[in-house]
From TrEMBL:
Keywords: Membrane, Transmembrane, Transmembrane helix. This is DUF1295 domain-containing protein. The keyword Membrane applies. Residues 255-277 are annotated as: Disordered. Pfam families: DUF1295. It comes from Paraburkholderia strydomiana. Residues 259-277 have a biased composition (Basic and acidic residues). The chain crosses the membrane at residues 6-24, 36-55, 107-126, 132-152.
Length: 277
């Protein structure tokens, strides 16, 4: 299928799906379900692009498996986390800030997710439309990065879920496992996931374009919809979180600064992001 047709069909599917979620949230007043839907549909885009592309079978199989597995795992995790709970505080804050304009602005916000998904889908398009395959070294590097990212993000999610499930940890910061070394290890492994496509594709024609998705994801998480929105609320509502910020890396796992103390407030199940974005 021509690349223009693939992009058009993928974008149309995303728009239809996200408008449907928007209609549902008009009734439920819970926009948080866009998070698992976003992850699941982006995984679906990976599988669709791999199926539609005329590239080498190995490239297309790698895209379908890696993108599909990533999207499915994250979608299931976010669905379990959000289903049956009150609206995520980030979306509730936006709804309150927008007031009467909330329905219109929320639709624009949802459609922006479709545009972001298309930017990220560059990672799927380049290998799926390339007849060339990477050398053995690049394949190994991509597999190591991808598996590390998938396992690491799953581990970070599991560690936080178990921590907040213990009533004795209520009001405490999660510093177990990866959370001791990064305030947002889930974000780190999310960015790392997109680096796997760059490692696979960098030697292919247009391979440089696959550097855009990990850079875009890191920028969104660190400067726009991830860390800024989350931590602006945490420093106001969680005693001790500011200290945690001064001793612990924001993104890349790193040993805590000297004198770090494991005290303060907690990150509860409503205090961490999903997508993504």
């Amino acid at each position: 299928m021509p690349v223009a047709a693939t992009l058009a069909l993928a974008f149309a599917g995303l728009v239809i799906t996200f408008v449907g979620v928007w209609v549902v949230q008009l009734r439920t007043r819970n926009a948080g379900m866009i998070d698992p839907v976003w992850a699941g549909t982006l995984g679906g885009v990976a599988v669709f692009v791999a199926a539609a592309g005329p590239g080498a079978s190995l490239n297309r199989a790698a895209v379908a498996v890696s993108g599909g597995a990533w999207g499915l795992r994250l979608a299931v995790h976010l669905w379990r986390r959000n289903s049956g709970h009150a609206e995520d505080a980030r979306y509730a804050a936006l709804r309150e800030r927008w007031g009467a304009a909330a329905p219109r602005n929320m639709l624009a916000f949802f459609l922006l997710q479709a545009l972001i998904s298309m930017v990220l889908s560059i990672a799927f398009l380049v290998p799926s439309y390339s007849d060339a395959i990477p050398s053995f070294g690049f394949i190994v590097a991509a597999l190591v990065i991808g598996l590390t990212a998938l396992a690491g993000e799953a581990a970070a999610d599991r560690q936080l879920r178990r921590f907040v499930a213990d009533p004795g940890n209520r009001g405490r910061v999660c510093t177990v496992g990866w959370w001791r070394y990064s305030r947002h290890p889930n974000y780190f492994f999310e960015c790392l996931h997109w680096c796997a496509y760059a490692a696979w594709s960098i030697s292919l024609p247009w391979g440089w374009a696959t550097l855009v998705p990990p850079c875009a994801m890191a920028w969104l998480l660190m400067k726009v919809s991830g860390v800024p929105m989350l931590e602006a609320r945490l420093v106001q509502t969680r005693t001790g979180y500011r200290e945690y910020m001064t001793t612990t890396s924001a993104l890349i796992p790193w040993p805590p600064r000297a004198g770090a103390r494991e005290r303060g407030t907690g990150l509860d199940s409503d205090d961490r992001h999903s997508k993504r974005n």
